[in-house]
């Protein structure tokens, strides 16, 4: 990973709170923070159920990897280009 790339890890919302805007707030905070620290690209390993959320934010799937939990479970690898201010 280059100096301008940061990895987003473990962004989760409790199931009972999904759909209430909390994930969007967390995402926007993470992007603002990464931008303020000089990063230009955010990479992440998504939960398969969250891939559509990240895609709606503009992240694109770049590959996949096998989950360390659950044999045969595949996790999407994604990246998001952080827009300038």
Textual characterization of the structure:
- With 85 residues, the chain is an alpha+beta fold.
- The protein has a single domain (5-81), classed as Aminopeptidase, CATH 3.40.630.
- Helices cover 26% and strands 28% of the residues.
- The protein contains two helices and four strands, in the order E-H-E-H-E-E.
- A four-stranded mixed beta sheet has the order 1-2-4-3, with helices on one face.
- Strand 3 (60-66) and strand 4 form a beta hairpin.
- The longest helix is centred in the middle third of the chain and has 15 residues, at 22-36.
- The two termini are 23 Å apart.
- The mean pLDDT is 92.
Attribute tags:
85 residues; alpha+beta; Aminopeptidase; 4-stranded mixed sheet; 2 helices; 26% helix; globular
């Amino acid at each position: 990973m280059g100096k301008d790339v940061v990895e987003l890890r473990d962004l989760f919302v409790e199931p009972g709170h999904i759909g209430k805007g909390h994930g969007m707030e967390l995402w926007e905070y993470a992007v603002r923070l990464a931008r303020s620290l000089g990063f230009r690209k955010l990479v992440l390993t998504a939960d398969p159920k969250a891939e559509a959320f990240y895609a709606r934010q503009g992240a694109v799937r770049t590959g996949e990897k096998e989950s360390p939990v659950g044999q045969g479970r595949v996790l999407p690898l994604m990246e998001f280009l952080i827009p300038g201010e």
